[in-house]
């Protein structure tokens, strides 16, 4: 059967870039001779993107003996996944059981719905519950290592349910997966290769991709997706299907501001610069269903004096927010449940920060620092983003916190921990294990939210198939997982659930592609 | 230049329906011979949809002497516009000035941003401010009649700034516009004609539409857009451009639930049954930019015992919420600022209603009823949706309101009105003009929110041009206005602003098409 490109309407034909205007008009048609396409290579499966969802899918498919092509537009593999925190939620797992932590599917879904404002697609959360332990086994088999017998108590979760990755970041999954894949003859992985378009057969099945090899992302362009014409065009056939794992658009200056005009070009993001909306938007052109695209999530424990993700996030989150406290400099007092979900904390912090950039101060002490992963402390100390002092008074002086109120507030907080009840913000304190802010040295760090995750995306079903808005059925041959999809998290996600989400739906897509 | 249909990827070729499966696969390609299209007719402008935005655009263009085709998929013209309340906001207008009401662009935009949660596109709100008085003149010239020297004080607006349409509904604009257009030889209007696809030229300019004449909307289908294959295919050329004025998707059972899974098929809507997402989704296929599509707005003054919009909305809104009060039956007390924006009130009501359907009761008295448009009272009295009694005790008995607390609450509310200060919910009371709930007979009515408006849609610029996500520039030949667009209202719109929005951007699109 003859193959047709959708790309007769596409601009991104670098091979003929000389003939195209600098910015071509919308929906331009290609030349006559694109009705049948000449493939430059054939694979069983083509994976677009190399983060958690892409790696997991490629791994599953390659291990099944199929021929895989993974394309990554940036110069390195791993996307945001390689630089994220990397800890992974898993509801109802054996470590919880061994520690007497009672968890359930209902509790997990209720926690997700709370920060997600109730608009999560629970049929997808159900997949995370049903397959979570399979995912843990899968990534462990891949070579990922978790801190043994440890469950993190992450913000917004009602119980400790998150595995801590030993490596201290998502590289703990990406590196071993990549190393295995790079040794497999049936897996080809290409960096600097940008997805441009789909190839469809006459029945609408996705049968390949148009891409550009030798493309170089240019962060100086206002919009790399629109303006960058580098690289040479290649068309590859995917006999079984295509997996979209291209991530979110937190760094897409134009598209994110269309969704939320309050986000200006200078608004910082924790994401790598290649996090743009190009693949998502191209999927809409073949009828993929958009959902909840306008919800941008901020990470509420970033440092305003670092660019991007920085090195301080894990410290602020796991030391000061999981176990310590956060105060408003102007009042010296706490102003939120430091263990709430990301949306609740972001909203509270933005109110405090206001127009005069009154960044909240996150606080902890030596006993707390000794209780967390040592790697979380080293980097911010070296970067001097965290201020260390022998007394709380010095902390107050350094940051300009209203001193008397602050000292009283620390005492009040410590009393709450001892009594196991937060009378001000109803924070769950039982997993503090009695840790208070009492033992010098004391630590303080400024806090600000940065754009972290774009919650919406393409609609998938529990089999990771992309659903067409034209038929309400799967688009044949098209799968997706991770941040390019929407629905799992609703309006806002809890920490460590995205890692589970991307790895699980990558694995599920791989399973389904292997038997397709 | 040869014309190409995008519809080779489309299913909706009723002319060859016999050859198509009942539900064809996504992105199916059409037959070989669709590279050049045979037009069944040529117009200067084709308008898709016949509500405010469509009528205003067609009127402007037809009056300029151009040849216009307006297509409407339903059996009657007017869409939701014909059945909506019809009152129209206009910031900084002469009636306000004559009455000493101080308004400004800043105040108008601040009001919209408040209920819109700050995500409105203010460059579009600015158009409503700059062109609002032009729109009033335009619709008056068209034959619309407002109640003279009257400004309505609508929920969420800080000052009275809305014209009251004499007819008591949006038909007050639609009917005179339609009557004029139907007499013009250069304007052809077709009902039961469903838009299926765009025709594009090789440079991506929209040069026509594919539609089906003799189509019959079938409300019994799970999805009319996907399943209904009725009608015969026609392709029409649009020499200057195409205007999308196809409205929102409040009745698109599938697509609205994808955006908000809490909305189930039985969730009622004020909209006519044809309010589906088909045209919006087809525009995404040619690269139109989606924005804020997942925000559904509920109308917080509907009657749960009527289907759809019903006949009670204007009474509940203008008598009980603008001037009277609303109580929780269980407490007998008020629970919200009855004059807040729609999102704030919807959220408050849904909390009260809960799972046991504890509908709030909206109350007013004879003096209030005498102050509003008499047409707002007649219909609900005839439909018996409103309960009338000589005493407040009877009202309490009838609805099961906690009586003593309720009687005390009415006294408290009346005192607030007299003092001009709402100590409980900070409602603006100065425009109540001293009207209290004191004079029998008294009126009571149950209240529930229904899906009313889908806030997001296509991105347009201030010239009503649809913006491509592929170029960040206008898609040549494509305009849009009204509910199919997004951004003006952000997350939630204020009452009477949508009428201004749709008529203004319809007018602007018409102006630009006339000079295109």
UniProtKB/TrEMBL annotation, chains A, B:
Q: Which UniProt keywords apply?
A: FAD, Flavoprotein, Oxidoreductase, Signal
Q: Which residues form the signal peptide?
A: 1-30
Species for this entry = Mesosutterella faecium
Pfam families xref list: FAD_binding_2
Its required cofactor(s), as named, are: FAD
* Database matches in InterPro entries: FAD-dep_OxRdtase_2_FAD-bd, FAD-oxidoreductase_2, FAD/NAD-bd_sf, Flavocytochrome_c, Succ_DH/fumarate_Rdtase_cat_sf, TAT_signal
The protein's name is Flavocytochrome c
PANTHER family in the record: FAD-DEPENDENT OXIDOREDUCTASE 2 FAD BINDING DOMAIN-CONTAINING PROTEIN (PTHR43400:SF7), FUMARATE REDUCTASE (PTHR43400)
Q: Where is the FAD-dependent oxidoreductase 2 FAD-binding domain?
A: 44-497
The organism's superkingdom is given as: Bacteria
Which family does the entry's similarity section mention?
A: Belongs to the FAD-dependent oxidoreductase 2 family. FRD/SDH subfamily.
């Amino acid at each position: 059967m003859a193959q047709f490109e959708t790309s007769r309407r596409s601009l991104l034909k670098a091979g003929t870039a000389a003939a195209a205007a600098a910015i071509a008009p919308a929906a331009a048609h290609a030349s006559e001779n694109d009705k049948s396409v000449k493939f430059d290579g054939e694979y069983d499966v083509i994976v677009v993107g190399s983060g958690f969802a892409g790696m997991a899918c490629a791994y599953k498919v390659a291990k099944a003996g199929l021929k895989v092509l993974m394309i990554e537009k940036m110069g390195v593999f791993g996307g945001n996944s390689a630089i994220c925190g990397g800890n992974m939620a898993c509801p109802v797992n054996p470590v919880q059981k061994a520690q007497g932590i009672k968890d359930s599917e209902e509790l997990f879904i209720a926690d997700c719905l709370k920060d997600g404002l109730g608009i999560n697609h629970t049929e997808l959360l159900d997949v995370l519950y049903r397959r979570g332990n399979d995912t843990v086994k899968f990534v462990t088999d891949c070579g990922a290592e978790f801190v043994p017998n440890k469950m993190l108590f992450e913000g917004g979760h009602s119980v400790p349910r998150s595995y801590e990755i030993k490596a201290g970041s998502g590289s703990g999954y990406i590196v071993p997966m990549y190393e295995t894949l790079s040794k497999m003859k049936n897996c080809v992985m290409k960096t600097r290769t940008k997805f441009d378009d789909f190839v469809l057969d006459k029945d609408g099945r996705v049968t390949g991709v148009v891409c550009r090899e030798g493309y170089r992302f240019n962060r100086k362009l206002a919009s790399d997706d629109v303006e960058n014409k580098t690289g040479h065009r290649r068309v590859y056939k995917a006999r079984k299907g295509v997996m979209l794992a291209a991530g979110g658009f937190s760094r897409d200056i134009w598209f994110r501001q269309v969704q939320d005009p309050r986000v200006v070009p200078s608004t910082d993001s924790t994401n790598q610069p290649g996090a743009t909306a190009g693949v998502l938007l191209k999927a809409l052109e073949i009828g993929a269903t958009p959902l909840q695209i306008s919800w941008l999530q901020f990470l509420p424990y970033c440092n305003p004096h670092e660019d991007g993700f920085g090195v301080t996030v894990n410290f602020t989150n796991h030391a000061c927010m999981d176990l310590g406290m956060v105060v408003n400099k102007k009042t010296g007092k706490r102003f939120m449940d430091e263990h709430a979900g990301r949306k609740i904390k972001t909203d509270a912090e933005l109110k405090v920060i206001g127009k005069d950039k009154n960044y909240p101060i996150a606080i902890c002490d030596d006993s707390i620092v000794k209780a967390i992963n040592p790697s979380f402390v080293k980097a911010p100390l070296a970067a001097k983003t965290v201020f260390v002092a022998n007394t709380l008074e010095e902390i107050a002086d350094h940051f300009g916190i209203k001193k008397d109120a602050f000292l009283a507030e620390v005492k009040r907080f410590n009393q709450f921990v001892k009594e196991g009840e937060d009378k001000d913000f109803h924070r769950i304190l039982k997993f503090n294990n009695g840790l208070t802010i009492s033992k010098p040295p004391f630590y303080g760090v400024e806090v600000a939210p940065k754009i972290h995750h774009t919650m919406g995306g393409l609609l998938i079903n529990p089999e990771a198939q992309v659903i067409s808005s034209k038929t309400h059925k799967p688009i044949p041959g098209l799968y997706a997982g991770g941040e390019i999809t929407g629905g799992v998290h609703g309006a806002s996600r809890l920490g460590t659930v995205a890692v589970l989400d991307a790895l699980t739906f990558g694995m599920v897509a791989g399973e389904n592609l292997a038997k397709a």
